[in-house]
Amino acid sequence: xxxxxxxxxxxxxxxxxxxxxxxxxxxxxxxxxxxxxxxxxxxxxxxxxxxxxxxxxxxxxxxxxxxxxxxxxxxxxxxxxxxxxxxxxxxxxxxxxxxxxxxxxxxxxxxxxxxxxxxxxxxxxxxxxxxxxxxxxxxxxxxxxxxxxxxxxxxxxxxxxxxxxxxxxxxxxxxxxxxxxxxxxxxxxxxxxxxxxxxxxxxxxxxxxxxxxxxxxxxxxxxxxxxxx
Length: 229
What we know:
Layout: E1 8-12, E2 15-21, H1 27-36, E3 41-47, H2 48-69, E4 74-80, H3 89-100, E5 113-118, H4 120-132, E6 138-143, H5 146-152, E7 157-162, E8 165-172, E9 177-181, H6 190-209, H7 211-216, H8 221-225
Parallel strand pairs: 2-9, 3-4, 3-5, 5-6, 6-9
Antiparallel strand pairs: 1-2, 7-8
Helix pairs in contact: 1-2, 5-6
């Protein structure tokens, strides 16, 4: 992966922060981050199901491009258990404690950038970590499920679950970049793909039903919160 040169970009909030194409994972994302979201520390967080398949190749691309550019940047990686049960206060605490540990030398700071690789659980959880760590640091989304690509990675909705219900504690924290690598769709089980297509159909129906309102409404976080877009 990583050979693409001119991907499709989609504007959101007045900036072309959504990048869509095949083969983004790897060199393209590393190069784009170093150029457009520069940082001394990047923190890639994913789940244990994805880690071995995607993190080592990303680390290799990162080391190669950092050396070529003589950039003063490092990549830290962390993995959490997969599934909805990880979308919790306990998991958030464990990530934050790891970020704040003395073992992170130099320490993660307000200019660090978090990379969330995964489906909706990872995006929601890691986005909320980014929204609250050091009172807010930049993060980027790399959604791996169709549902996350068309819904949860876009608009800045982040949250964790509590015993009282799902998504009850969170924040609106817009990603600095959203990289939608269509190759991930080839890895999805049929049921997950169908769930994503159901969301696509729902959104299309909503837009067609309220097209006049949609074209008039500014695309901002207030309208997203009210469900108007």
